[in-house]
Amino acid sequence: MSRHIVRTPDAPASSVYSQAVRGAGLVFVSGQAPLDPVTGRIVGTTIQEQTRQCLTNVEAVLNAAGSGLEKVLSATFILADEEDFAGMNEEWARWFPAEPPARQGARLPIRPDGMKISVAVIAEA
Questions:
Q1: What is the tens place of the pLDDT at every residue in 26-45?
Q2: What is the DSSP secondary structure assignment for residue 90, as one 8-state letter?
Q3: Over 80: is that where the pLDDT of 92 sits?
Q4: Which of 18, 100, 104, 109 could make a disulfide contact with 96, Cβ separation 3.0–4.6 Å?
Q5: Half-sphere exposure of 97 (CA within 13 A, CB side)
Q6: Residue 80, SS3?
Q7: Is the pLDDT of residue 10 over 90?
Q8: 118 to 9, 25, 28: CA distances (angstroms)
């Protein structure tokens, strides 16, 4: 089985993990924080704004992998505060209005200053 590391300047990058890996007909997108890919700063102060930026970053990585949001099979969101769940869900529904992917959530184990959410997905390639 071959695998391909996905990189794009349109989403935040890291030196310690890949933005995504494509293999076995799937794209595994690493957790995307609500960071601006150019400045590296957190975008937004509300959970809706931060969810939007996370999904913008996810979409950029998927596009670079030759996939897209419509091919997302499973998503994991990690919240800093469970009280943000309703606001996250509100924005999420705008991105996945029909036939949304399977999804699971967890609580953010670390608290980077100002970061409220991270989103990772698995999609068809």
A1: 999 999 999 999 999 999 99
A2: H
A3: yes
A4: 100
A5: 1
A6: coil
A7: yes
A8: 18, 24, 14
Of 36, 8, 33, nearest to 20 (Cα)?
8
Contact at 8 Å (CB) between 32 and 50? no
Is residue 87 classed as helix, strand or coil in its secondary structure?
helix
Q: Domain ranges in the chain?
A: 3-124
| CA distance linking residue 81 with residue 40, whole number of Å | 22
C-alpha distances in angstroms, 64 versus 49, 68, 106?
Answer: 23, 9, 27
The Cα 58–Cα 34 span in angstroms is 10
- Token pair recorded at residue 85: 């769940």
> Domain spanning 3-124: which superfamily?
RutC-like (3.30.1330.40)
- The pLDDT, as a whole number, for residue 34 is 98
